[in-house]
């Protein structure tokens, strides 16, 4: 094994991989970070967005709470500390995904400003796009697809965001999607229009 | 938001994303898991392999100890328990990467059969390709690019694989690369020849 090769390969390639892959895939990788209450429609929009992006020739990865908590983060609970660690790992994971030139679509309640700041800081301001998927809590509670609000009201789930623990709406998100006013297609159309200038390959 | 869409989208898309992306990228995603002593050349080979694969039109992501331990897994140390958790997360992460149709090239000491079995079991037998990057410990120790063997010999690093804690060679790896006998290019050529039938897009 040649020492020169060993020394030279690592720093050069690490730096070049992302932009080289972006050029091949004809896209700029970004983390599209969707926050909002349970039932606001984050995962649904994330999956439909990925579907539409694929149709336009883009490669993205969808991450959401259910997926992560059944795998990578299954050692974590829902205490404030574990939620912070959950989203720290998600942010680090997303950073890896964009380092390969892939778009990361993240659907996580991410209830506090602090938790979203942490994510933005890990990922880097330039690569972090904050999307507020917003529906009033009574609408989310009516949907209650997973029966979580009912459990939270009965006290079976403690610290459930919006019931036992607060959701701090983003002060200045990149874009807000009101899913009580728009259906899935309208939501994704609006989001896509906003996102495309960020991911379209320019050079 | 239409209930039907909400119900229908998730299971269908999750299952289809990988094969759909594989068809677009013209590759089959696999986890190429390289184990071996520190200094055996795992990361060097991983990066050069990625480089060669890219030249052939494939998209892969390189993961190694330094990268993961400075980010996703920076909360972990080097106790047996933390090493197991480190590689559990790496395996879960790789599983996510291949679920997007991307090849994952993993360079980790992964010292025990048990730790490698855990990874194989998380990732799935079919998608896990074990590569033993092998050089005798005296060769690795002579290279000692990071000065780790010296620190281990002086007792500054405890439980260093090969010195204070054991390395269990894989009994039946997919392929073994002897980096004391082959240089970087020869190693990667040999590995590539073995790997291509696993990742070439067939249908």
> Roughly how many Å apart are the termini of chain A?
36 Å
The most extensive interface between chains reads: A-B, 48 and 49 residues
- Derived structural class of chain A: alpha/beta
Rounded radius of gyration of chain A (Å): 18 Å
Portion of residues within helices of chain A? 40-55%
How many helices of chain A?
Answer: 8
Pick out the low-confidence regions of chain A: 1-9
Q: Which sequence of SSEs, written as H and E, runs from N to C of chain A?
A: HEHEHHEHEHHEH
- Which shape of chain A, going by the Cα principal axes? globular
- Report mean pLDDT of chain A, rounded to a whole number: 91
Q: Using DSSP, what is the number of strands of chain A?
A: 5
Topology:
The structure is a homodimer of 203-residue chains.
Chain A: H1 3-25, E1 31-35, H2 42-55, E2 60-64, H3 65-69, H4 80-99, E3 103-107, H5 113-123, E4 128-134, H6 137-143, H7 148-153, E5 175-178, H8 184-199
Describe the structure.
The structure is a homodimer. With about 200 residues, chain A is of the alpha/beta class. Chain A is about 50% helix and about 15% strand. The first copy, chain A, contains 8 helices and 5 strands. Chain A has helices spanning about 5-25, 40-55, 65-70, 80-100, 115-125, 135-145, 150-155, 185-200; strands at about 30-35, 60-65, 105, 130-135, 175-180. In chain A, strands 2-3-1-4-5 form a 5-stranded parallel sheet, with helices on both faces. In chain A, helix 2 (about 40-55) packs across helix 8 and helix 4 packs parallel to helix 5 (about 115-125). The longest helix of chain A is centred in the N-terminal third of the chain and has 23 residues, at about 5-25. The two termini of chain A are about 35 Å apart. Residues about 1-10 of chain A have low confidence and may be disordered. The interface between A and B is large, with 48 and 49 residues.
């Amino acid at each position: 094994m040649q020492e020169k090769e060993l020394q030279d390969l690592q720093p050069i390639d690490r730096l070049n991989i992302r932009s080289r892959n972006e050029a091949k895939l004809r896209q700029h990788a970004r983390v599209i970070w969707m926050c909002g209450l349970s039932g606001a429609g984050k995962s649904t929009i994330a999956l439909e967005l990925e579907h539409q992006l694929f149709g336009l020739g883009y490669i993205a990865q969808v991450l959401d709470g259910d997926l992560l908590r059944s795998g990578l983060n299954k050692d974590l609970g829902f205490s404030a500390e574990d939620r912070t660690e959950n989203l720290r790992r998600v942010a680090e994971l997303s950073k890896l995904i964009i380092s390969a030139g892939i778009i990361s679509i993240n659907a996580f309640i991410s209830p506090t400003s602090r938790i979203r700041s942490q994510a933005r800081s890990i990922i880097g301001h330039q690569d972090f796009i904050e999307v507020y998927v917003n529906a009033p809590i009574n609408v989310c509670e009516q949907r209650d697809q997973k029966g979580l609000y009912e459990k939270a009201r009965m006290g079976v789930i403690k610290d459930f965001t919006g019931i036992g623990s607060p959701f701090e709406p983003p002060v200045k998100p990149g874009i807000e999607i009101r899913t009580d006013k728009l259906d899935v297609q309208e939501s994704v159309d609006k989001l896509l229009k906003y996102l495309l200038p960020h991911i379209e390959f320019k050079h």
